[in-house]
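Friendly challenge for the regulars: who can give me the structure tokens for this chain first? No prize, just bragging rights.
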Amino acid sequence: MTTMKTEIRSGSPRHFGFLLVKNFTLIALSSAVEPLRMANRLLGKNVYQWKTISANGEPVTASDGLSVNVDCAMTSADALKDVDAIIVCGGTRIEQFTRRSVLKWLNRVDHKGIAQGAICTGSYVLARAGLLDGYRCSIHWENLATLTDLFPMVQVSRSVFTIDRTRYTSSGGTAPVDMMLHFISEHVGADISAGVADQFIYERIRQSDDIQQVPLKHTIGKRSLKLVGAVELMASNIREPISQEDLATYVGLSRRQIQRLFQRYLSCTPSQYYMQLRLERARELLRQTYKSLVEISALTGFVYASHFSRSYKEFYGHSPSVERQNMGVSPDSKK
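First reply, four minutes later:
Bragging rights claimed.
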């Protein structure tokens, strides 16, 4: 593979220490580490470095049962050597596995002026240590309500990842990929970041203003399975939107009943919710593809590009063309 030459800029952290909490989610850790490894490969040099840390230096068992060896204990002199940021890797039953010794150590890390972050449920650990008071943070959508209730001084966000001064937090699953790609883009440019995404067949790089899609089944539960079914039908028919009459028929309700369900649980009309889904999809296409505005308007169910542009501006506050310019994506930039 040909290495890519580029200027290395200062700023965000490049040397990471990953503190593994028992039952951490392995996919979140891999999603954080692998973009760094691939960036080094593309650059042909080790711009990024990382180490794994545990409370006692012993291997840590992930939530899937796999045991991961670590480089050092948190009390080791090597734990903080040359580290720009400590990232807490959380997972299931995070409340049960948060040790007092870890909280004290994280506060000592903070006193040394080292940045801190978290992936998956690791934000709970930082919040419990008092290190997120007055900061915005992200956490897996299953834990949003709990973190908000337990730590009122923390500004909990639904964002895929959040960067607030020296706090770098990401939700679970593959979301750490997006946060690390952000750092890579800041350091060595969007070309390297895009190259990493291409190597991983990662079709869409999400930004810090992208919101986690909380499943309706989680927020509504069994209170309205009909509504959940209606929304799933909408999401499956973006290019050719279905009418409210057909939507109601498919889920076995009247049009008026469908409207009442949307107002009760989502505080909007079916048309407003459908429009939001279509515009969110359009935003993805604008940010991640070189398709023209005419093509995107057709792919998201708009007959006329003018209607698409007007609707987009009303919803996001700026036109589709401005969105694309802000992301540095245009048909002419395709290589």
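Residues 330-335 have pLDDT under 50 and may be disordered. The CA atoms of residues 36 and 76 lie 24 Å apart. Your move, everyone else.
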